[in-house]
From TrEMBL:
This is Cellulase family glycosylhydrolase. SUPFAM superfamilies: (Trans)glycosidases. It comes from Devosia sediminis. It comes from the Bacteria.
């Protein structure tokens, strides 16, 4: 099927010329160990630059040179100046460690009921139990879409010419219905189909120098999935998620457009067989930018597997850990993993 490009999308030549100037990118989806979700990472009362600096230092020490970081629209609505200042502070700390940043504007994963302020304590033994969606249920209120547009335009205008920001990921897993774990909007997928192209347009209207993307995640054949088509046709660089074995990962590559740079924005879940030793050599060979899920075990609790939502790990720790590279004190979970990352990024 012939690929279609949305208005304003970068040409293939521009995308590849931009990517050719970069090193091979290897990093993580980053939330400090002291934060259970995006709000706890960024709100003034729980923003922890000392922790961020320390944990990014551990990442840099093993050769990681990039991070993917989630923002939230409510933070902008409540305190745009403070939020902008904390993003600036984070970018300073990351840049000081030689780390570039992909910023994520919206996210459809986990809890759609989101509120500012102190966040609930993580549920014992449960994977990512307090992560929140953005915009969450505001997706169904078209009266709030102007506020969402203001957020996108404001953040992208503030950092769209900032060399510390490498890519804008406009929406993480936009059509994810979260496996029945939450009462989702009945028409969520239809609303996403309407709003997702507009979010790309709002982002482009702010004229960033960085490319735009939104990661294909569902595992279906791309052109049999309406949301994957929207993502592909609007993305300057192609991003995707894969938590499968190396063999299935390589098979997935056959189903992705290969004329543009590829960003693997989520991988590494040890239980189903997505590991550093299995995936990173392929990614290096194919020059695919790669971001594992999770860096330091903490309040996000992503060392627990997805099935912990049904069967919390109360009596014993999972063996192996699902995600995450370091214990909270900086000790590697597996010394051989960090040795591999050091070797392959050297």
């Amino acid at each position: 099927m012939t690929e279609i490009s949305a208005p304003g999308r970068w040409s293939v030549a521009r995308a590849n010329a931009w990517y050719a100037k970069l090193p091979w990118l290897v990093g993580a989806n980053f939330v400090p160990s002291t934060a259970s979700n995006q709000l706890e990472m960024w709100q003034a009362d729980s923003f922890a630059p000392d922790v961020i600096e320390r944990e990014l230092g551990w990442a840099a020490d093993i050769g990681m040179n990039t991070m993917r970081v989630f923002l939230h629209d409510l933070l902008w609505a409540a305190d745009r100046d403070g939020f902008r200042g904390r993003i600036e502070r984070y970018l300073d700390l990351a840049h000081g460690k030689g780390i570039s940043t992909m910023l994520v504007l919206f996210d459809s994963v986990w809890n759609p009921d989101v509120a500012l302020g102190p966040q609930p304590e993580p549920r014992p033994g449960v994977h990512n139990s307090q992560w929140v969606q953005g915009p969450g249920r505001a997706l169904a209120d078209r009266g709030q879409w102007a506020r969402l547009e203001d957020y996108v335009g404001g953040v992208v205008s503030a950092f769209g010419r900032d060399e510390r920001v490498i890519v804008w990921d406009v929406w993480n897993e936009p059509s994810n219905l979260n496996g029945g774990r939450f009462a989702e909007l009945e028409n969520k997928r239809e609303l996403v189909s309407e709003l997702l192209p507009q979010v790309f347009q709002w982002t482009r209207a702010a004229d960033p120098m960085q490319p735009l993307t939104s990661g294909v995640w569902s595992g279906k054949t791309l052109y049999d999935d309406a949301h994957a088509r929207i993502q592909i046709e609007n993305s300057d660089v192609i991003s995707f998620h894969d938590y499968q074995t190396p063999e299935k990962f390589e098979a997935k590559l056959l189903d992705l457009p290969r004329d543009r740079p590829l960003f693997l924005t989520e991988f590494m879940a040890r239980t189903p067989g997505s590991t550093f030793e299995g995936i990173l050599p392929i990614a290096k060979r194919e020059r695919i930018a790669s971001y594992c899920w999770g860096l330091v075990a903490g309040r996000s609790q992503t060392l627990y597997p997805w099935d912990s939502w049904a069967n919390p790990y109360i009596a014993a720790m999972p063996d192996p850990w699902f995600h995450d590279v370091f214990h909270a004190d900086g000790t590697p979970y597996r010394a051989e993993e960090v040795a591999l990352i050091r070797r392959i990024t050297a």
